[in-house]
Amino acid sequence: KISEYEQSDEKILECKEKALECKYNAAMVLLEEGKYMEAYEAFFSLGGYKDSATKADEIYWSKVYPKPRKH
Predict the structure, then answer these.
(1) pTM to 2 decimals?
(2) Is 55 exposed, middle or buried (0-12, 13-18, 19+ CB in 10 A)?
(3) What confidence score (pLDDT) does residue 56 get?
């Protein structure tokens, strides 16, 4: 059992952190490729990881749902 191993809780946290980091990096690639809706969804799904919530907001308001321009 994994619970029998020393420091298993720390290893679990490390794995979760690494998974979040991979998802964040994948979201950055989507953003760089101009896939704004997919990048928005990826950052949004990360919640408060790093600056993902800020990035999701920035993408949403500047690329996905920009304010209409006044003529």
Answers:
(1) 0.81
(2) buried
(3) 97
Task: Please tell me the predicted confidence (pLDDT) of residue 64.
Answer: 82
Q: What are phi and psi of 42, to 5 degrees?
A: -65, -45
The 10s digit of each residue's pLDDT in 33-59 is 999 999 999 999 999 999 999 999 999
Q: Give 27: exposed, middle or buried? Use CB within 10 Å, 0-12, 13-18, 19+.
A: buried
Write down how long the chain is. Answer: 71
Burial class (CB in 10 A: 0-12, 13-18, 19+), 44: middle
Q: State how far Cα 12 lies from the chain centre.
A: 19
Q: Where are the alpha helices (DSSP H) in 1-71?
A: 8-32, 36-45, 52-59
> Residue 38 has which token pair?
């997919």
